[in-house]
Design goal:
eleven-stranded mixed β-sheet; Methane Monooxygenase Hydroxylase, Chain G, domain 1; Amidase signature (AS) enzymes; 2 domains
């Protein structure tokens, strides 16, 4: 085996089918590499709970009795955000005192295991999936995979970094406000935020149950499609699961129309390099047949503000109400402040916000009559860990400028790499469209990145 693992799904599959690699060989080397990273002085704080070598060998040895040809994820290692259940492994949601031991595995995780994937560990996150920064964790700030002085992005912080550092072929995150997209941008990954209800959230600790979705991080678009093919599907056990409609499954034409926020509505928060990188991304879409159209982004911005300035914060409180009320000292200070604001929200406030969202949705609907997709930066800039700790609320708000509206508007989205700044840190863009066009988005993303 090579000293440096190539964990691309297609590469591993080719090796398994040729007989040049076995799952037990893979997990032994992977365990050694994860241990080496954890023992470094500047470790990235990726894991909350790692599976032991014996645990991984159990999965690997079972696979070696099966036919690799019929299992699409045969021997593929993956990481799991620690608000998603894996039976027999603690779930903490980033809070040690909240920890419980699940008896059952989350539906989406079980689908992946049944397809041959091997779980390697539960990953660090912004506590209770509240944040886009990756530093709001008592397990330590997850550090950026390229420059450890910078944030990894959150809340699916460890999930993204595990893939970026070659410790997992793919990982599962969750996405309510951008948690499956911002970490992808900051670690040069593909981040798929599926349509709401496309992947089951049964066995996921809720943030906002009406908006949560399980997200996927990969090194390339092909792997994201492979994982999505396995992970998606209606789940009767999940009240928020939805059946995929075939009518929305057609791919975009070679010539397509993409919307952009008006120039004065683009925000890069003082970064002088990312505007040029975004301009280059626009040129990439035009190169493959895209026609750009400027759109008024006001309604999207207004929708984004509802997520944290409106009653959806109360959903976060409802998800952990009993624990929150009785274990205030166990909750990370910034997280406690954000969720605690829910107590000020009345039922009347909630209905008023729901009416406003309905109006915003109706105002936005005509946009999709003339556009195939919308292109935005995934985040306008990136911050150092120290910058976020010095101003935790505003920096997080800035990172959600292009992400917070998407689940409220029932959109599907893919975050893709879009170049590097002079300091080596990556920049990413997101393409989004209406629900259940996930496959079409991935095909388009592949064309953009060629």
């Amino acid at each position: 085996m090579s000293v440096v693992l190539n964990l691309n799904i297609s590469h591993l599959r080719q090796q398994y089918l040729s007989g040049s690699l076995t799952p037990t060989q893979l997990v032994k080397q992977l365990d050694a590499e994860i241990s080496q990273e954890e023992n470094q002085a500047g470790k990235h704080n990726i894991w909350i709970t790692r599976l032991t070598l014996a645990d991984m060998m159990g999965y690997a040895e079972l696979l070696e009795k099966l036919d690799a040809k019929v299992l699409p994820l045969y021997g593929i290692p993956f990481a799991i955000k620690d608000n998603i259940d894996l039976a027999g492994i603690p779930t903490t949601a980033g809070c040690p005192d909240y920890q419980y031991m699940p008896a059952e595995t989350a539906t989406v995780v079980q689908k992946l295991i049944d397809a041959g994937a091997i779980p390697v560990g539960k990953t660090n996150l912004d506590q209770f999936a509240t944040g886009l920064v990756g530093v709001r964790s008592p397990y330590g700030a997850s550090r950026n995979s390229i420059n450890a002085d910078y944030i990894s992005g959150g809340s699916s912080a460890g999930s993204a970094v595990s893939v970026a550092l070659g410790l997992a072929s793919f990982s599962l995150g969750t996405d309510t406000a951008g948690s499956g997209r911002v970490p992808a941008a900051f670690n040069n990954l593909v981040g798929l935020k599926p349509s709401l209800g496309l992947l089951s959230t049964q066995g996921v600790v809720p943030a906002c149950r009406t908006l949560d979705c399980v997200s996927i991080f990969t090194l390339n678009v092909e792997d994201a499609q492979t994982v999505l093919n396995v992970a998606q599907g209606f789940d009767e056990a999940d009240a928020f699961s939805r059946k995929k409609t075939t009518a929305n499954n057609t791919h975009f034409k070679t010539d397509f129309t993409f919307g952009l926020p008006k120039a004065e509505q683009l925000a890069f928060f003082g970064n002088t390099e990312t505007p040029e990188l975004f301009a280059h991304a626009i040129q990439q879409l035009e190169r493959i047949g895209g026609r750009k159209v400027e759109i008024d982004f006001t309604h999207f911005i207004d929708t984004a503000r509802l997520l944290y300035e409106g009653p959806w914060v109360a959903e976060r409180y409802a998800a952990i109400k009993s624990f929150f009320d009785h274990h205030q000292d166990s909750i990370y200070p910034v997280t406690s402040k954000i969720i605690g604001n829910a107590k000020k929200i009345s039922a009347a406030d909630t209905y008023a916000a729901m009416y406003k969202l309905k109006s915003l949705r109706r105002a936005i609907e005509p946009v999709w009559d003339t556009l195939d997709i919308i292109l935005t930066p995934t985040a306008g800039t990136i911050y150092t860990i120290s910058e976020v700790l010095a101003d935790p609320i505003q920096t997080n708000t800035n990172l959600g400028y292009y992400t917070n509206f998407m689940n409220l508007l029932d959109l599907s989205a893919v975050a893709i790499p879009a170049g590097f700044q002079k300091n080596g840190l990556p920049f990413g863009v997101t393409i989004c469209t209406t629900a259940f066009k996930d496959d079409a988005l991935l095909v388009l993303a592949q064309r953009i990145l060629k």
